[in-house]
Design brief:
CATH architecture of one domain: 2-Layer Sandwich
Shape: globular
CATH superfamily of one domain: ATPase, nucleotide binding domain
Number of helices: 16
Bound molecules: adenosine monophosphate
Mean pLDDT: 85
Structural class: alpha+beta
């Protein structure tokens, strides 16, 4: 049998992996039996690399050797220094992919060689290429990059393959909103339009609730320390999440400067966030307008991303799209499930092999030109060659002429974006070709843009008069790694040892304990330390006891966590009476104490 292909949602906060199995897309659980693996990487003092849950715990206790949200910087040269080594965002992403690959191989019991990876529709060429390179470093062949809304629509379509439908994919995460309109017709899936707001997300709701709290408590925002504001913001997020479950919630802030509580309702949040709702509506109406589709023609609304869980957001969508209700499936899983379908299509599985996925170019692509009518105008205009929302793959050619008399070369500068002047768009690359010096308008230059299904752009220039041809594949070599570097690094990554899977649960519990130790004080601290020491001792002395001791430790930590969240003062009787305590363990506990004392001497 050919090697398996997996589908990966490489997310900003969490990543998921799926596979096509027994006629459907299935999520693959990690070592913890969970589908969501935090997209966090941390390097231990001994050079061990932690990825996922254990790494996330180290964000607070070892912030200097831990990295998160690096997806936001994919395709850039932003540097992260972990454990004395430099990492680019694509290298950190590679470590997450490597981990997901390992989880998938363990689950499937066979090797995985290839992956379909999803990226946000607004990802530039640089970011897409960086994602592919990350795959290569992780030992995965990545032929297919899929836009996240297309993946979500595929997952939606998998539910009802017999129906033709227009779906609105509403992807609302922590910091961005992406809205897409996708049509599934005769097994062909086509994105009709995309729009969004890359500065709007759940964090804006946190911010509004935090400001409301500051105002209600008559606090002077200008005088709050960064640390205090961070505590207020975190409490605001907790409160927002509580409002997903209940119509009213308490926002509790308890830090050295402030101890206060405020009751807030869903209705209050709708009032204080009116401008956010207005911004949510804009891209929704824009995709309808771009695709010339009415709200009534939308068959289903697919919700993606954590912020979609907010009932007030769902109600607002029901309101603006004039519907009775929404059909809701787990928003966190939709993209990965769609990637699983895409993997199934690539494997040419019987059930889905006829499905054809088309995609669109989510932004306009063009070149900078001078307007011959205004020779003194120095600003270059954006001449669009591939307009936004064109179906992929696409290849289009335009004809240009030399703008000035006797100029010696023509330089094609390539841009992405919707602005009128190139200075306001994103520069992707450039190439030059020499031309015979002739009067303006007499040398013809043909420029062809070819944008493939993976969103990789190729530009061809042709001067018919001289026969000169040039080609540019847009990969900005100054950003991210060069192919040479990838080849070099690959050798290193093949040998790289991630924290061994069998040890992962232990490492996670230890990291969890270290974080709690930092965040607590007094008796909790002492108790955490005592139990951690005991656990470490058992890890060395009696491996058979590890699962049991780990379970007790987990129950204890969960209890500490809960107590911290609700700001319960430490009641020492609780420490002794908590139900993690097991009398059977008294004996070993005693031997531990002896060992500990001996060690102290
Ligand atoms: P994502 O990037 O999709 O993980 O979304 C993260 C955003 O979703 C953050 O702003 C979270 O606060 C928000 N979020 C996650 N779960 C919930 C929930 N149950 N209720 C409200 N917001 C949530």
């Amino acid at each position: 049998m050919s090697k398996r292909i997996i589908g990966i949602d490489l997310g900003t906060t969490n990543s998921l992996v799926a596979v096509w199995e027994n006629g459907k897309s299935r999520l693959i659980p990690n070592m913890f039996g969970e589908y969501l693996t935090p997209s966090v990487v941390s390097v231990g003092e001994d050079g061990t690399i932690y990825v996922g849950k254990a790494a996330k715990e180290r964000l607070i206790s070892y912030p200097d050797s831990t990295a998160s949200v690096f997806k936001r910087h994919m395709g850039t040269n932003k540097e992260y220094f972990l454990g004395g080594k430099r990492y680019l965002p694509e290298e950190l992403s590679a470590l997450v992919l490597k981990k997901l690959k390992e989880d998938a191989e363990r689950y499937l019991g066979e090797e995985v060689e290839e992956a379909v990876i999803s990226v946000p529709a607004y990802f530039s060429d640089m970011a897409r290429n960086a994602t592919k390179r990350a795959g290569t470093l992780a030992g995965l062949k990545v032929e297919r990059i899929i836009n996240e809304p297309s993946a979500a629509a595929l997952a939606g379509q998998e539910q009802r393959p017999e129906e033709d439908a227009v779906s609105l994919v509403f992807d609302f995460g922590g910091g961005t909103l992406d809205v897409s309109l996708v049509e599934c017709f005769d097994n062909v899936i086509e994105i009709l339009a995309v729009s969004g707001d890359n500065r709007l997300g759940g964090e804006d709701f946190d911010e509004k609730i935090a400001q409301y709290f500051i105002q209600k408590q008559n606090l002077d925002a200008g005088k709050l320390s960064v640390e205090t504001y961070a505590v207020i913001k975190k409490s605001a997020e907790n409160c927002k999440r509580a409002l997903t479950e209940n119509k009213k919630a308490d926002m509790v802030v308890n830090c050295p400067d402030i101890t206060a509580k405020m009751e807030i309702s869903r209705k209050d949040v709708t009032q204080i966030c009116l401008d956010l709702f207005e911004r949510i509506g804009k891209p929704v109406f824009r995709v309808l307008m771009d695709a010339k589709v009415t709200a009534e023609s939308i068959h289903n609304i697919i919700l993606v991303g954590g912020s979609c869980k907010m009932p007030i957001v769902q109600q607002y969508l029901i309101h603006i799209l004039n519907r009775k209700d929404l059909e809701i499936r787990e928003p966190d899983h939709m993209i990965a499930l769609g990637c699983g379908v895409c993997a199934g299509i690539k494997e040419r599985n019987e059930d889905v092999k006829d499905m054809l996925l088309t995609d669109i170019c989510p932004f306009s692509l063009g070149i900078g030109i001078s307007d011959a009518r205004f020779p003194r105008q120095t600003e270059q205009l954006m001449a669009v060659i591939i307009p936004r929302n064109s179906s992929l793959p696409i290849s289009k050619e335009e004809t240009y002429v030399n703008a000035h008399d006797y100029q010696k070369k023509i330089c094609v500068r390539v841009f992405q974006g919707e602005a009128m002047y190139t200075r306001d768009n994103i520069f992707l690359g450039q190439m030059e070709v020499e031309i015979p010096p002739m009067p303006a308008g007499q040398v013809i230059c043909l420029v062809r843009f070819t944008y493939d299904i993976n969103g990789v752009l190729q530009i061809n220039m042709h001067i018919p008069l001289t026969g000169e041809k040039k080609q540019l594949v847009v990969v900005n070599s100054e950003l991210g790694m060069t192919e040479e570097e990838v080849r070099e690094k690959l050798k290193e990554y093949e040998k790289l040892k991630l924290s061994p899977a069998k040890d992962e649960e232990n490492q996670y519990v230890l990291m969890w304990g270290e974080r709690l130790y930092m965040q607590c004080d007094g008796e909790f601290r002492e108790e955490i330390l005592r139990r951690m020491q005991y656990f470490r001792y058992m890890m060395e002395k009696d491996p058979y006891q590890i699962p049991k001791v780990r379970k007790y430790l987990t129950v204890f930590f969960a209890y500490v966590e809960g107590a911290m969240e609700h700001y319960v003062s430490v009641d020492s009787s609780l420490l002794q009476d908590a139900d993690w305590y097991d009398e059977e363990d008294e004996e070993t506990d005693q031997s531990f104490k002896n060992w500990n004392e001996e060690d102290d001497e």
